């Protein structure tokens, strides 16, 4: 099994053209920006990447283009989740053949599993498509609606999923996350998924984290990790507070995903529009957004 992931993994936006098609040409400069910001890799086609709003063929094309940017210190994890285990298995097969580092999958939002056994069974069928790659279950109950015990999932998963590696844990149930981190002697890789609670995740034992605001705020979070490791807890708290204040502003203008995609354009990476039913950012509020962000000393943003 692969080593545990440490550091920051971005959940990138999927670049779109104005006609709604996927803009694959934007991925190489996007990858370069993330590498320059110190990111350790990407978790593509997930919630931030609008994965379930794309066709299977589009997702394969996006995966191939990101994997072409992969290196020893920049890994690509492909989210292959759909409402169909068979379709997800096919996407996992493609991810493995294309050379991905790992795959991840959230549970099906349609006809949601009511028992852990059912979720493990679904995940096992998906993971079987890429037996040579680490498999991460993507726990994000606010999106999937699946609120089953992840501690129990870890107990059962290895018996049916030989390539099980861990969980992308996007929930604020730190009691359960700590149980998962320490389960089986700390064997499993539990990736923290709440940007605004990164410091808490580190305190509970997380080593790696996946997030959407890492696309445009990675230096701040890298400093939080550095301060935490050095024992500069008060400094880490102040940086985390800055993150909280900025994310609060983003939420006032439509949320970290909607506003974040617009901010990427400001930073020179035009990710275009969203797929329905996601609402577009209100351009009339852009100038006020920038003023509000700058009031919190958001790192240099240039109006475009």
UniProtKB/TrEMBL annotation:
GO cellular component terms, semicolon-separated: cytoplasm
Gene3D superfamilies in alphabetical order: Aldolase class I
Binding site for pyruvate: 48, 210
SUPFAM superfamilies referenced in this protein's UniProt entry, alphabetically: Aldolase
Protein name as it appears in the record: N-acetylneuraminate lyase
Annotated GO MF terms: lyase activity
Keywords assigned: Carbohydrate metabolism, Cytoplasm, Lyase, Schiff base
Localization: Cytoplasm
Active site per the UniProt annotation: 138, 168
Domain of life: Bacteria
Principal location class: cytoplasm
Family: Belongs to the DapA family.
Pfam families: DHDPS
Entry-linked InterPro entries: Aldolase_TIM, DapA-like, Schiff_base-form_aldolases_CS
């Amino acid at each position: 099994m692969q080593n545990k992931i440490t550091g920051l993994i971005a959940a990138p936006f999927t670049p779109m053209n104005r006609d709604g098609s996927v803009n694959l040409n934007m991925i190489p400069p996007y990858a370069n920006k993330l590498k320059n910001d110190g990111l350790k890799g990407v978790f593509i086609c997930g919630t931030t990447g609008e994965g379930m709003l794309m066709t299977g063929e589009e997702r394969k094309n996006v995966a191939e283009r990101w994997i072409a940017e992969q290196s020893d210190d920049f890994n690509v994890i492909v989210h292959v989740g759909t409402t169909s285990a068979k379709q997800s298995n096919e996407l996992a097969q493609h991810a493995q053949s294309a050379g991905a580092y790992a795959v991840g999958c959230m549970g099906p939002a349609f006809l949601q599993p009511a028992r852990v056994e059912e979720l493990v069974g679904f995940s096992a069928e998906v993971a079987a498509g890429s037996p040579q790659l680490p498999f991460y279950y993507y726990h994000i109950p606010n999106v999937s609606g699946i609120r089953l015990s992840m501690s129990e999932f870890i107990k059962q998963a290895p018996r049916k999923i030989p390539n099980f590696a861990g969980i992308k844990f996007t929930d604020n149930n730190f009691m359960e996350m700590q149980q998962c981190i320490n389960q089986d002697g700390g064997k499993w890789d539990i990736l923290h998924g709440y940007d605004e609670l990164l410091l808490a995740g580190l305190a509970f034992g997380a080593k790696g984290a996946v997030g959407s605001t890492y696309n445009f705020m990675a230096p701040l979070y890298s400093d939080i990790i550095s301060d935490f490791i050095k024992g500069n807890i008060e400094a880490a708290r102040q940086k985390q507070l800055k993150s909280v204040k900025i994310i609060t502003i983003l939420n006032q203008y439509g949320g970290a995903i909607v506003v974040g995609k617009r901010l990427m354009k400001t930073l020179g990476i035009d990710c275009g529009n969203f797929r329905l039913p996601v609402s577009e950012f209100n351009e009339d509020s852009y100038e006020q957004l920038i003023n509000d962000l700058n009031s919190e000393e958001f790192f240099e943003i240039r109006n475009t």
